[in-house]
Amino acid sequence: MKITAITAWAQWQPFVDGIYTCSGGRSAAGFDSTLLRVQTDAGLIGWGEYAPLGSFYDPAFVGGAREGLRLLAPLLLGADPQSTGALVRRMDLHLNGHPYAKSALDMACHDIAAQAAGLPLAEALGGRFGETVPLYRSVAQAAPAAMADKARAYVAAGYRRIQIKVGLDVGEDIERMHQVMDVLPAGTVVYADANAAWRPAQAREFLRATRDLAYTFEQPCAGFDENANVRAVCDRPLVLDESIDSLPAFLRAQQARLMDGITIKIARVGGITRTRQLRDLAVECGLGVTIEDTGGAQIDTAAMAHLSLGVPESHRTHTCDFHHWVTVANAQVPLHCAGGQMDAPRLPGLGVTVDPAAFGAPLFDLHAR
């Protein structure tokens, strides 16, 4: 089988809840998504998606990803999309770093490979554990009372796992935690996520002031040494997200016993190939595993769901239903969400049905000669 054409489109995906604010007051109004179609001489079509959270989250932004795709896509024409490992190596050879530019291509090739095998992506990547994955909902930064109101609404909508965005003024963040947790019903799983915004002293202050609250602490600081400083005094589960951007970063953190769990974002590590690698290694190390991405709608959420259900339930934490975070759609996909849980399609590949006519003129449309 050979790749005969690669086409990319842009899709602006506004947030249902308006402006989304996270640590440091950084904000975005939606995801600027790039959608990718890979066609083959066997008639199979694969889809991929990459969407950054603004220009500030990770060393990645939409312009860089699209330029990377323009460079990489011609190099994959004529290649076998089922050889996903070899294609990852080819992309790495011709573009050093920039994993987010490779993610949608890798996703689309995995979609094709699973279709060719007649398997849903979850099964093609090693199997499905259970039928659903828990969902969390992130409460964006705002005044403490407004965040409490938003959390109450999310619980009413069925979410039983809440991520509270902190990482601004420590005193205000302490108040945010108390006001939000005061309105959450018993049994709600809570994460406090600083998105790598604090110095160790600020994280330690936050820990001291919230000692009476039950929550998981997520990515308090940016660097390895800073998080190690916090880990030494942290009396609750510590999860790393932003700093787990590669296998070497994971191995260093694991060797230092720095974390109890990890959040793997598909685009941050370069696509499904390396997400699966990190996922399975984290399970073998006994860590809690969350698989999600930097943004997107139905296409990307389907990939997140398949990868998440490949985590044994004993190690699986949660994911998010990004297609419900935005006001537009990019595919029809049987993703069923109820009671704070989401399943994954049983159709071959990602299980998405896409109408590219809805996206307008493509960013580029390449065909093999």
Protein described:
It contains twelve helices and 16 strands. By secondary structure, it is an alpha/beta fold. It has two domains: 3-118 and 353-367, 2-Layer Sandwich (Enolase-like, domain 1), CATH 3.30.390; 124-342, Alpha-Beta Barrel (TIM Barrel). The strands form four sheets. The protein has a seven-stranded parallel sheet. α7 (200-209) runs parallel beside α8 (224-231). The relative contact order is 0.18.
CATH class of the largest domain, anyone? Answer: Alpha Beta
The number of domains is 2
Span between N and C termini? 15 Å
Give me the number of helical elements.
Answer: 12
In what order do the strands lie side by side in the largest sheet? 7-8-9-10-11-12-13
Topology (elements, then pairings):
Elements: E1 3-14, E2 20-21, E3 27-28, E4 30-40, E5 45-50, H1 62-76, H2 84-94, H3 99-117, H4 121-124, E6 133-134, E7 137-139, H5 144-156, E8 161-165, H6 170-183, E9 189-193, H7 200-209, E10 216-218, H8 224-231, E11 238-240, H9 247-255, E12 261-265, H10 266-269, H11 272-284, E13 288-292, H12 298-309, E14 337-338, E15 341-342, E16 364-367
Parallel strand pairs: 7-8, 8-9, 9-10, 10-11, 11-12, 12-13
Antiparallel strand pairs: 1-4, 1-16, 2-3, 4-5, 6-15, 14-15
